[in-house]
């Protein structure tokens, strides 16, 4: 992240949600108010070089930044004479929301030490062998990486994998980082970047025949990192009303659709035998082991209703768990 990126990010954030920054002008942001908000952010982070360009906020600079924002985020910030800047869209697009989330996560980690008294950030199991910044650069420049990976039973039955790979993508899930990489012998493989990584080196040699990779297409039918080749299917899940709200705001999967909402949305007591507290969603995914773990995580609050073989799969595992406690 560069200081210029951060300035454009905050211009967009301030104009999109001015009240957060103390600007109450009926949704408009006058130039002077925008400059004052940027100046205050700079003052609040006066010793941080990342914020050094926020004070460079003259009208010409902001005008250039607005063109960059339009190009990068497909978001148009307009100006109304005697009122100020405003964004016509009322909701952030999915891609823009992703920019917001990733930038905020970056800033949380950037300020982790100075904000340690106010924020608790989960630590990941990232191996000391791996530095993500040069790895991202290697993905971008299509440099080869060399690694040795000693798998556990759960991922490849204790197999050791070693060789040169084209790094394709990084994904964080459940407090663990994964590298998606490719070579001819193993195809596309997901390496967990924890202590299973025994050696890791970025080679300055370019990949001779790089393969294209689209993370959305690759993980389209996955709920996490696991790809089994199982055919994806629509899985219907009933959800109790108190958790229905949570899954509405935090979908299980991007394919999630609401089939039916609970007839009783708010109840002071959770009577699971009451059919009116249950809503229903559906997701189009592989019903693999990772899906099972996700469902079990939600305890009494969800129940798979179809297809029947997926319902039986969940029931079978629940039965084995019950046997532990007899």
Could you characterize what this model shows?
With 326 residues, this protein is an alpha+beta fold. The chain has three domains: 90 residues, Arc Repressor Mutant, subunit A (Orthogonal Bundle); 87 residues, SH3 type barrels (Roll); 92 residues, no CATH class. It has ten helices and eleven strands. The protein has a five-stranded antiparallel beta sheet with strand order 6-5-4-3-7, with helices on one face. Strands 9-10-8-11 form a four-stranded antiparallel beta sheet. A hairpin with a 2-residue loop joins strand 4 and strand 5. Helix 1 crosses helix 3. The longest helix is centred in the N-terminal third of the chain and has 17 residues. The radius of gyration is 24 Å and the shape is globular. The mean pLDDT is 88.
Structure, briefly:
The chain is of the alpha+beta class.
Question: Strands, helices and their partners?
Answer:
Blueprint: H1 3-16, H2 31-44, H3 59-73, E1 77-80, E2 84-87, H4 94-110, H5 132-141, E3 143-150, H6 153-156, E4 160-173, E5 176-183, E6 187-192, E7 197-206, H7 215-218, E8 233-240, H8 241-249, E9 257-260, E10 278-285, H9 289-297, E11 302-306, H10 308-324
Antiparallel strand pairs: 1-2, 3-4, 3-7, 4-5, 5-6, 8-10, 8-11, 9-10
InterPro entries: CBASS_pafABC_assoc_protein
Protein name: WYL domain-containing protein
């Amino acid at each position: 992240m560069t200081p210029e990126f951060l300035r454009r990010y905050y211009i967009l954030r301030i104009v999109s949600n001015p009240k957060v920054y103390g600007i109450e002008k009926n949704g408009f942001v006058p130039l002077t108010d925008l400059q004052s908000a940027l100046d205050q952010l700079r003052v609040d982070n006066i010793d941080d070089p990342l914020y050094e360009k926020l004070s460079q906020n003259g009208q010409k600079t902001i005008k250039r930044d607005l063109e960059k924002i339009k190009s990068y985020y497909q978001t148009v910030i307009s100006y109304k004479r005697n009122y100020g800047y405003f964004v016509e869209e009322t909701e952030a697009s999915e891609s823009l929301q992703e920019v917001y989330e990733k930038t905020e996560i970056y800033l949380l980690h950037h300020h982790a030490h100075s904000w340690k008294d106010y924020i608790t950030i989960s630590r990941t199991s990232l191996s000391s062998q791996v530095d993500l910044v040069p790895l991202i650069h290697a993905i971008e420049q299509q440099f080869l990486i060399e690694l040795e990976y000693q798998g556990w039973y759960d991922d490849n039955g204790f197999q050791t994998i070693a060789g040169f790979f084209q790094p394709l993508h990084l994904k964080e899930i459940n407090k663990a980082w994964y590298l998606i990489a490719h070579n001819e012998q193993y195809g596309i493989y997901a390496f967990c970047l924890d202590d299973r990584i025994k050696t890791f080196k970025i080679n300055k040699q370019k990949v001779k025949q790089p393969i294209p990779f689209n993370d959305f297409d690759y993980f389209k039918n996955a709920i996490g990192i696991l790809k089994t080749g199982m055919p994806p299917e629509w899985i219907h899940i009933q959800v109790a009303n108190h958790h229905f709200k949570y899954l509405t705001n935090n979908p299980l999967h991007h394919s999630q659709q609401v089939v039916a909402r609970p007839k009783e949305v708010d109840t002071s007591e959770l009577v699971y035998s009451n059919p009116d507290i249950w809503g229903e969603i559906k997701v189009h995914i592989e019903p693999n082991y990772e899906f099972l773990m996700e469902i079990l995580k939600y305890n009494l609050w969800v129940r798979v209703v179809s297809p029947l073989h997926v319902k039986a799969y969940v029931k079978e595992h629940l039965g084995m768990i019950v046997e532990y406690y007899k």
